Amino acid sequence: MNTYSNYVAGKDVPAADGRTFTAFNPTTGGVWGTFALAGPTEVDRAVKAASEAFRTGPWGALSPTRRGRLLMKWGEVIAEHADRIATIETEQNGKLFAEMRAQARIAQDWLYYFGGLADKIEGTVIPLDRQSILNYTLREPLGVVGVITPWNSPTFIAIMSLAPALAAGNTIVLKPSEITSASAIELARLAELAGIPPGVINVVTGFRETGEALVDHPLVAKVSFTGSVGAGRAIAARAGQRLVSCMLELGGKSPNIVFDDANLDQAEAGVLAGIFAAAGQTCVAGSRAYIHESIYDTFVDRLVRRAQQITIGDPLLATTQMGPVATKMQLEKDESMVARAVSEGAKVLCGGGRPAIAEFPGGYFYQPTIVHQLTKDNFLMRNEVFGPVLAVTPFKDEAEVLALANDTEFGLAAGVWTHDIRRAHKMARALESGTVWVNTYRALTFNSPFGGYKASGIGRQNGIEAVYQYLQTKSVWCELGDEVQDPFIMKV
Length: 492
Description:
Shape: globular
Structural class: alpha/beta
CATH architecture of the largest domain: 3-Layer(aba) Sandwich
Largest sheet: 7 strands, mixed
Number of strands: 21
CATH superfamily of the largest domain: Aldehyde Dehydrogenase, Chain A, domain 1
CATH class of the largest domain: Alpha Beta
Strand order of the largest sheet: 15-16-17-14-13-18-19
């Protein structure tokens, strides 16, 4: 049995009232461990620790260069412990060990990049008309940033928020998903092993009550949230009551568009990877595949054949291609959404149920599922499943597929498969999406901005834009001459 407490100012902190909650292993359906259930008392303690580290602790006194070097060292330490972190995450969310290990390892790339940016945050000198006045700007950190992360890629998503916030000079209180809380605490411990002072990164574990206490705390200067649209709206509304800004990376219903001139082998692999590689448990899942009518039947047959060959089982094994979904609730959601789609006229081409996995009779497994004959208003076409469910639809031409692809409240990602370079760039401009992949899918890197249009989010992660999300600008005016100002007239 694994047991974790909150992690505040470098110490394990149980809940004041002794409350705990249980986390499960989705592969077996059994108990994985217990965690402290943080309430307002523990959240207050964590936020105050972060505030003290920012205002009077050594973090605020560090030079940007030194701060950046510590982030780089943290990345190296995480990479050294990547296998252990990956094992913990796979046992908690059921995703493939190979993917979780890769994500833990590439955290080093993110921390190297943002560590390098730490001493490249610069202000500007404003050329005023009045030459006796020096006016310049400073870019300064906000203070304490509350970070709330989901369960699907715990380390990777946490680092995408923490790295730019820390590079900007802020301190952190991290509230991970109650499904995958362990790796967040492990990351905080590794940060201190790398030399980052206690109190700079704090972790509180729990449910909605814990997150609400963090968002509501008067010392939290900004909230970074990754998760569902509904939760994002609720968090933004609460933060707005205090006039606190949010960085939101929310859901998606991403279109993957295959034209008749595409490399079909490449497109097949991309469409399958876009939805089944992570059992559909990714915000950028290409859950709507639009396929040109001239190749529709042939291409869909290829997808179905390959989907039926996917190896489902223990995500810790290298031979497994798809593990379970993360929770029993998610499994039931997959089932209910497919059933509703069928009740509205759709047909299931493959999958649509729970596979029989002899080794794990209690596991949360769902078959790779492909559904067709859906109207554009079918519930499955308009709502995020977050499971291994692909909706396929034919289209006639560019105008029709653009209208279909953009007919959604979401706008996180999109894929286009074509050899026509003019078409590719026209589609990229016209798709209402924060990321457009052409002849590839599900690619991210540390120096390319990532975020959503419409209900898929506010702000950008990755790249230098991410650092600016966690800074505020101050304008400084300095009179250099001896002129006495008329006290009743503004200087212009």
